[in-house]
């Protein structure tokens, strides 16, 4: 990623807000008593939570618009080395996170039952593919790829399955390539919402973020630039809602209409932040989110490992995670307690990030 000082403050805040929300939605005291905006849509449809991951990919693309020119300046060989190295590290961290804590019932946890694809793995693959596409085909090629990918994905889903949980092409390809034991089972069956095939349209979220970052650098922080971004965002949302009639907005399948919808929303939110932070200079409130934005991947990984550890150890008949969630529920009620627990996890991670920022410790991959 680019040096922190070379990016707009609004981009760091945007990324930090997204990470904070990501931790909250990933750490409910009880999913059964979470407020509905903090839950994913069951299948078709859209909630606030469904915006979190595609926005993360969008801000990855924003960062790439600053970092890729530096990588490209050192030549093709060094560029590929940096991209491959970063991709491999992020992918491996995601895999190790699912394997963690490595020991189960006194024995090494079998790799044969460890999930292969996931959030960090998708970030790694999207970063890798978007970097290559942008480097070798430039802006025009990246734009053409995005159009083709969104249309082709619809064709593939129609040709090799349907749009149901059990019969979609994403689940079929993953089951064929890696087997059900390496897939996510949170939907009641082996189905990975970060499956290999649905990575194709998700690359477009990264490319959209890159093109947006490039446009901001060339257009500058002014009303015309922000207005054009918002107009494009509104147009994409309109297109997504039209396409939703034939190809439903669905986060778990990462449908093409979902891509247009989420990019459109990001193109409405980001200009507002740029106006408030970079133009109006209203920055007294931003530091909280800057902490998350400066150590993004580290704090996200920390939050996941923290939750896993809370599940690993027990107090009486409950895991520490469940026991603490029950205490929050007893104090604040079921729904407020679930949110309070999630906020506690998020604030605990923020405190570590705050310490790191004060010590000028920034973990980069």
Structure report:
- The chain is mostly helical and 365 residues long.
- It has one domain.
- Helix content is 67%, strand content 2%.
- The chain is built from twelve helices and four strands; from the N terminus they run αααββαααααααββαα.
- The chain has a two-stranded antiparallel ribbon. A two-stranded antiparallel sheet has the order 3-4.
- A hairpin with a 2-residue loop joins strand 3 and strand 4.
- It is globular.
- The N terminus is likely disordered.
Comma- or semicolon-separated keywords:
365 residues, 12 helices, globular, two-stranded antiparallel ribbon, disordered N terminus, two-stranded antiparallel sheet, single chain, mainly alpha
In short:
This protein is mainly α and 365 residues long. It contains twelve helices and four strands, in the order αααββαααααααββαα. The protein has one domain (4-358).
Strand content: under 5%
The overall average pLDDT, rounded, is: 93
Number of helices: 12
Return the structural class.
mainly alpha
Gyration radius, to the nearest Å? 20 Å
Helix content: 55-70%
User: Got a strand count?
Assistant: 4
Give, in spatial order, the strands making up the sheet with the most strands: 1-2
SSE string, helix = H, strand = E? HHHEEHHHHHHHEEHH
pLDDT below 50 for ≥5 consecutive residues: which ranges? 1-6
Total domains, how many? 1
Cα-to-Cα separation, first versus last residue: 8 Å
The largest β sheet comes out as:
2 strands, antiparallel
Approximate shape = globular
